[in-house]
Amino acid sequence: MFPLIGSGKFITAPVITEDGEPIYDPLVLQEANVSSAEGIDAFNGSEMAKEPNTHCTMSKKEIQWKLTLHQIGLDVVRTDRTLMFYEKQENLSKLWDILSVYAWFDKDVGYCQGMSDLCSPMIMLLEDEADAFWCFQRLMRRLRGNFRCTERSVGVETQLSNLASITQVINPKLHQHLETLGGGDYLFAFRMLMVLFRREFSFGDSLYLWEMMWALEYDPELFIMYEDPELASEKSDRSKGKVKSTRQCGKYERENMKSGGKSAEAPLPISVFLVASVLKDKSTKLLTEARGLDDVVKILNDITGDLDAKKACTGAMKLHKKYLKKAKNA
């Protein structure tokens, strides 16, 4: 459908209109390394004639997908741009390839801004492009809910609401201050949750943080989310009623099980407590210096790449324990 994928190149300018008609942009010709409009037609996978009465035969899904390809390219060149790894065109192209294929693969969510931050480590750690794609696809099975947006809600809205509840319980003074500033919806924490702190921590620390988060949250039944839906449902039904050993679970999951978190709603992800931990560390500065939401955003942006992953996880675990205790007493 678009032979530029896998060619070692990528685009940052649109190649078609919303009606599916080709755009012969000189930038696209240069990026695709083709010297004529016929070359763009070839890359669009079409043999469209130039007569005005000729209509495009692409499906709506294909048109929509091709309309996202240049946006993916724009995001790719902005991703981890301080790392030497992405000084090579071939590595930028790999990232674009995987995100472009995923945009077609995930019929429901497609591509959204922020996915490049999550995919980038896969490209760097796995030389084989196919391996990197499937690791990213499995990661997105866990996180794609963050990117699912409707007219009424954003993907991480529930987590932001939970963050507000947690802060209200463990740091009511800070919560009240944020509400007074008009930040009671906690949208300033949107990015942290959306891309799992990739921009708040250094590259190495963000990977270290992911490892610790997933180890702390580990549940032996976690594999179910990686199975095909029908098979997952069947295995889930078989496991119902069985007593699960706490020894098999991560420390965070064990705390949830002790508090009876599994009997009611699904437990809160540790990422929410990580954000709460960051807010707690910056609470003095937020209380004394923040006079508006712009100040809140600036204070939190100033920590970019300057946080300690181990300290953040330790702080999150302490807040989690404190929250469970207060919630139980309440």
Automatic annotation (TrEMBL):
Coiled coil: none annotated. Pfam families: RabGAP-TBC. Residues 55-217 form the Rab-GAP TBC domain. It comes from Olea europaea subsp. europaea. InterPro entries: Rab-GAP-TBC_dom, Rab-GAP_TBC_sf. GO terms for molecular function: GTPase activator activity. It comes from the Eukaryota. This is Rab-GAP TBC domain-containing protein. PROSITE patterns: TBC_RABGAP (PS50086).
